[in-house]
Recover the amino acids of this structure.
């Protein structure tokens, strides 16, 4: 033990604890989880320590510059090494945190290339001493087991300023909002043949030659919580629905461990539609089943982004949770992780959710809309959902009533969208829901949309109709952006990266505007089940609208707009 470590051990032995890192974290156990009892003191846990980063404001400013087509820095993305040198925790932070862990004999830790996360293994007994207040319990939902703390945790005062949060203690996996595997067929009354790759390619004006051509392009989907795709399902899907355009029938790379059980509807949907829209483009699947009971699978995926120098240029993720169920510290740090990806030229697309504006119930029949995260992050592109006006024909699109959208209660409205959102609020005027239901100064979402209603998916060798949700629209938009990246790379241009600053400057150009329909809200006397409604140009239900591929390609196939 070095002299510094000995000093730290002596300091930390004073047992002065009062620092709660996530004071606003919801620690109520969701009703669908059953308590099985306290874990044994000797049971091994995996916890993730998010170390304080440096130069966050500089990182965000760099993201703005490399993403703004009017900036001289547009497209000049950073490498992982450059990102690491920018945000790497200070030497003091690393010494204090490492010393604190070593003082409790926690030495089995892994770090990432940016050195801002530590993933450590320890016993439950050690974890509870390290994080006073914590109490690790086992819970079960269906056949999924999980270990979480039933009470808030604290850290030593001297460590508090060096850590953002500790993962593996509180957050329970969400169920429902973007989980098509459990959602019943909501739109069976709209009987028709359903959405297939050929329907999508016709609606969004993709020809048989609009497929990937370059070798250095790739796209990805991320899956969590025992969601797997089966290669045989993908092959059958392409055989049945992939005729008329060149495509690949196999995923090029799986990052993580694929399960051997039944295929998941969510995973099958994502893989089949990103590979049929972004046809002939190398596709990766990031899979983290969260089999270690103390893991947070979404957080595990975040760690991979900080640890891999070569990543696909487009990632689509159908995952979300209510903002009010997560701590502000957690969301702010995850938001910074999205910025780290964006400055590297990576486009992150998240589903907007399937609960409309959502609804949070307070006492005395007081309600408010309930925004979702990561959909509400200002550093990602959020995708909403639409449906055909005539369910029996390929007509124009209207709002899918489940399409998530609204205004964040955590993140302020980013500059790139202020003009568009204020124009919507002014035009909507008296038709808006009462002001108490939403935060009109928050980050507004979604940013764009695509069809999310009545998809065909092959799952466990069976073609399944009527699959709906923004989990469907998100990989469709991802595949289209991957095709545009393909043409940009062919011209020697950088990938699109973080798309929003450029998309909002297009002001709806190259997109099909969606102007009809409203989504769900609170079922009470004041709003009577209605949230926001679609309107000309941007709106908090379908964003700027749905993609018109050739027009969008022409608009984005340049190095900038006004330089």
């Amino acid at each position: 033990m070095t002299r510094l470590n000995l000093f730290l051990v002596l300091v930390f032995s004073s047992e002065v604890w009062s620092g709660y890192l996530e004071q606003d974290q919801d620690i109520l156990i969701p009703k669908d989880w059953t308590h099985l009892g306290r874990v044994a003191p000797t049971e091994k846990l995996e916890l993730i320590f998010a170390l304080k980063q440096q130069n966050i404001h500089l990182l965000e400013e760099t993201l703005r510059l490399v993403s703004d087509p009017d900036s001289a820095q547009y497209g000049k993305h950073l490498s992982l090494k450059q990102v690491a040198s920018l945000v790497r925790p200070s030497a003091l932070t690393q010494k204090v945190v490492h010393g604190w862990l070593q003082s409790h004999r926690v030495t089995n830790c892994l770090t990432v290339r940016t050195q801002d996360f530590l993933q450590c293994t320890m016993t439950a007994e050690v974890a509870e001493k390290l994080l006073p207040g914590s109490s690790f319990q086992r819970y079960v939902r269906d056949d999924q087991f999980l270990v979480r703390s039933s009470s808030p945790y604290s850290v030593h005062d001297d460590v508090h300023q060096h850590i953002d949060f500790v993962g593996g203690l509180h957050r329970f996996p969400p169920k429902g909002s973007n989980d098509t595997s459990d959602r019943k067929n909501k739109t069976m009354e709209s009987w028709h043949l359903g959405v297939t790759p050929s329907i999508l390619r016709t609606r969004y004006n993709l020809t048989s030659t609009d497929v990937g051509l370059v070798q250095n392009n790739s796209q990805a989907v991320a899956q969590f919580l025992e969601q797997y795709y089966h290669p045989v399902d993908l092959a059958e899907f392409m055989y049945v629905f992939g005729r008329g355009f060149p495509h690949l029938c196999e995923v090029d790379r799986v990052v993580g461990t694929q399960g051997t059980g039944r295929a998941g509807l969510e995973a099958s949907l994502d893989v089949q539609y990103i590979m049929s829209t972004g046809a002939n483009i190398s596709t990766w699947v990031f899979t983290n089943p969260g089999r270690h009971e103390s893991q947070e699978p979404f957080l595990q995926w975040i760690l991979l982004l900080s640890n891999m120098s070569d990543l696909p240029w487009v990632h689509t993720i159908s995952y979300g949770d209510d903002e009010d169920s997560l701590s502000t510290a957690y969301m702010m740090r995850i938001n910074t992780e999205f910025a780290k990806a964006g400055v590297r030229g990576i486009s992150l697309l998240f589903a907007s959710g399937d609960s409309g504006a959502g609804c949070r119930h307070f006492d005395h029949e007081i309600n408010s809309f309930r925004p979702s995260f990561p959909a509400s992050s200002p550093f990602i592109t959020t995708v909403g959902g639409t449906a055909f006006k005539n369910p029996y024909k390929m007509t124009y699109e209207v709002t899918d009533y489940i399409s998530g959208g609204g205004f964040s209660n955590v993140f302020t409205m980013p500059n790139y969208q202020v003009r568009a959102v204020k124009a919507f609020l002014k035009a909507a005027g008296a038709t808006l829901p009462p002001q108490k239901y939403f935060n009109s100064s928050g980050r507004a979402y979604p940013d764009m949309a695509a069809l999310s209603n009545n998809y065909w998916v092959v799952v466990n060798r069976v073609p399944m109709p009527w699959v709906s949700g923004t989990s469907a629209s998100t990989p469709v938009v991802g595949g289209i952006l991957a095709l545009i990246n393909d043409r940009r790379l062919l011209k020697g241009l950088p990938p699109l990266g973080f798309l929003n600053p450029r998309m909002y400057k297009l002001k709806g150009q190259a997109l099909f505007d969606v102007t009809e329909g409203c989504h769900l809200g609170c079922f009470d006397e004041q709003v009577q089940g209605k949230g926001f409604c679609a309107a000309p140009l941007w709106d908090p239900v379908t964003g700027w609208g749905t993609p018109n591929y050739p027009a969008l390609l022409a608009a984005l196939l340049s190095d900038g707009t006004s330089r």
